[in-house]
Write a structure and sequence with these properties.
3 helices, globular, mainly alpha, single chain, Multidrug-efflux Transporter Regulator, Chain: A, Domain 2
Length: 74
């Protein structure tokens, strides 16, 4: 999915920060990426340079997953 939008420095999070923001583990963040639920805002540029995630994208994934859980519970 190609999206064009502005990134704000305050919204760019490392995987550990993204996990803390979402209330999940770093491995869950990796699973969301693997499953196509979340994309890197800025990909890693090599060893020691983590990919960054956009805070609004994390909020959207949490919203979608909450909606799915509510639908399954109903």
């Amino acid at each position: 999915m190609n999206r064009i939008y502005d990134f704000y420095a305050r919204d760019l999070l490392t995987p550990a920060e993204a996990a803390a923001h979402a209330g999940v583990s770093v491995s869950t963040i990796r699973q969301w990426v693997h499953r196509g639920l979340l994309e890197h805002a800025i990909p890693s540029e090599g060893r020691g340079v983590p990919a960054l995630f956009n805070r609004p994208d994390l909020d959207e994934v949490k919203r979608v997953l909450a909606e799915r859980a509510a639908e399954q519970a109903a």
